Amino acid sequence: MTDWVEETLYPDFRLKLRAARVLHESRTDSHHLQIIENPTFGRALYLDGVLQTTEKDEFIYHEMLAHVPVLAHGQARRVLIIGGGDGGMLEEVLKHPSVEQVTMVEIDPSVVEMAKSHLPSICGRAFEDPRLELVFADGSEFVRDTAARFEVAIIDSTDPIGPGEALFTQRFYEGCRRVLAPGGVLVTQNGVPFMQPGELAGTLAILRRLFADAGCYLATVPTYVGGPMAFGFASDDPFCRQAALEVLQARFAAAAIRTRYYTPEVHQGAFALPGYVRRLLE
Questions:
Q1: Strand ranges inside the chain, DSSP E
Q2: I need a labelling partner for 148 at 20 to 30 A (CA). Which of 106, 137, 169, 179 fits?
Q3: String of DSSP letters for 69-131
Q4: 156, 159, 213, 237: which one is catalytic?
């Protein structure tokens, strides 16, 4: 009999992946963790019944949430990552030689240990990089209390369920604004707007109150079903979101990084929104 793992994110729409093998399953103080192996997507991580990432398509999500803000800013030396326990976001950010320090704040140490053991194809050797400061704490408390400042803040959160719910509030976004250096860039994970319209609309309503410039961009990740995924983008410097193509091309060339999805052209085009997404933000 074939075993299937069913995602429980949406009440009326479900995604199933065939589990050729269950590699890990445990319960922590924060999450129910599962890692399965699927013939098409490779190893897949679930938290609390919701698919987080797979070996096959993680590069799309991680590249777009990492390289867009770093290259839009152009001079990011200190980067903050909230969440991202699988290490994929960390690995992408650390590809930039200009980045001198990455502070990663993860609420659950078990997720990091699980990634090191079972998802090395996603995190690589990122957790061994000397530029990393790894903090196990609540992200909302960290941005409220820290004295550190960052050019880029990346919110690699779960969906607004359970521990992730606090990372979609005005109080949290106010903390994110507080920890940004002048002209800094904040990017956020905002789900699939066709299926989760309130998530994106709610975040952008807050970001537009807090920042001089705020918008969103899109990327299509096969296992995040229901249409393209949205990422919030906010800064007090409007030129970050409007960076010219030739500027992005020069920065990308100078960084000398290899990508499978991100290009400067994709970066610029990702901010062109279909009508239904634009109307969500009006």
A1: 4-6, 16-18, 21-27, 32-38, 42-47, 50-54, 78-83, 101-106, 132-136, 150-156, 180-189, 213-219, 229-235
A2: 169
A3: HHHHHS---EEEEEE-TTSHHHHHHTT-TT--EEEEEES-HHHHHHHHHH-HHHHTTGGG-TT
A4: 156
- Give the tens place of pLDDT for each residue, 23-80: 999 888 778 899 999 999 999 999 888 999 999 999 999 999 999 999 999 999 999 9
- The structure tokens listed for 137 are 């704490």
Strand partners, 36: 22, 44
**Dist. CA 112–CA 136, nearest whole Å:** 10
Give residue limits of the domains in the chain.
4-53, 58-280
48 included as an active-site residue: no
**Tokens representing residue 108 in the block:** 């659950």
Q: Does domain 58-280 have CATH number 3.40.50.2000?
A: no
Q: How many angstroms separate the CA atoms of 123 and 85, rounded?
A: 9
Q: How confident is the model at residue 160 (pLDDT cuts 50, 70, 90)?
A: low
Where does the pLDDT of residue 9 fall: very low under 50, low under 70, confident under 90, or very high at 90 and above? confident
What top-level class would CATH report for the domain 4-53?
Answer: mainly beta
Tokens found for residue 228: 């393209």
Enter the tokens of residue 112: 């990091």
* Beta strands 150-156 and 180-189, pairing class: parallel
SS3 192: coil
Query: Would you say the pTM of this structure is higher than 0.90?
Result: yes
Average pLDDT, the chain: 94
